[in-house]
Amino acid sequence: MEVDFKVTGLKELEDLMIRELPIKVARKSMLQGMRLSFGPMIEAARDKVVKKSHALALSIGMKTVPMRKSNFAAMVGGPMSGKPLAAAAYTRYYRKGEFGFGKEPIDRIRHGHLVEFGFKHKGGRNKKGKVTHVPAQPFMLPAFDQEYLGYVATFNKNVEDKVRAAIKKHNARSPAGRKR
Q1: How, if at all, do strands 131-134 and 119-125 pair?
Q2: Which helix (H) or strand (E) holds 32?
Q3: Would the CA dihedral through 112, 118, 121, 122 be positive or negative?
Q4: Is 13:163 a contact under the CB 8 Å cutoff?
Q5: Distance between start and end Cα atoms, the chain
Q6: DSSP secondary structure of 102-154
Q7: Using an 8 Å Cβ cutoff, are 75 and 34 in contact?
Q8: Which distant-in-sequence residues (6+ apart) come within 8 Å of 50 by Cβ?
Q9: For 103-162, how does the pLDDT look when each residue is reduced to its tens digit (9 = 90+)?
Q10: Cα 152 to Cα 167: distance, rounded to the nearest angstrom
Q11: Nearest to residue 27, comparing CAs of 163, 140, 118, 126?
Q12: Do 41 and 144 form a contact (C-beta atoms < 8 A)?
């Protein structure tokens, strides 16, 4: 699931960023404001996930999208791979610390989409011939529904505060004006 936000009414802020800040500083301050606004949504998702091993809850986070893949500033939130605490929790719970030949500890949690949307087991049937289906237990969609109005409401303020702080800091460092 991908959601794009188009926030209007930031034209003055955009003009201010272009006039006063180098691109990297403007992008960094924009991402800081986005991260502040996005935090409650991530926390709500962590609260809503079914906690058996706590691995999935520990893997939920946010990261920035590289500039080569986005126009200016973008963030992605949800279950992330490469979270060592989540991998350790998963290994501790499901593998019970039995490491031997062929049982190396995992380094990534890759099952968030299966929990969110449900799935049918590989093979499709159990020994009795019954179709085995695991129902969905959504956590990201309800968190988004619960928190997106707060995200939109705080986004403008957080981004504006971060950009204005970056402009103030940048001007204090270079009184002659901006340097690109």
Answers
A1: antiparallel
A2: helix 23-48
A3: negative
A4: yes
A5: 37
A6: T-PPP-----HHHHHH-EEEEEEE-TTS-EEEEPP--SHHHHHHHHHHHHHHH
A7: yes
A8: 56, 115, 137, 139
A9: 565 666 677 877 888 887 776 666 777 777 778 889 888 998 888 888 888 888 888 888
A10: 23
A11: 163
A12: yes
The b-or-e profile of 104-137 (16+ CB within 10 A means b, else e) is eeeeebeebeebbeeeeeeeeeeeeeeeeeeeee
Cα dihedral value 76, 82, 86, 90, nearest 10 = 120
pTM of the model as a whole = 0.70
Distances (CA, A) of 3 to 31, 67, 109, 162, 175: 17, 18, 22, 23, 40
**Segment 65-95, tens digit of pLDDT:** 887 766 677 788 888 877 877 877 777 777 6
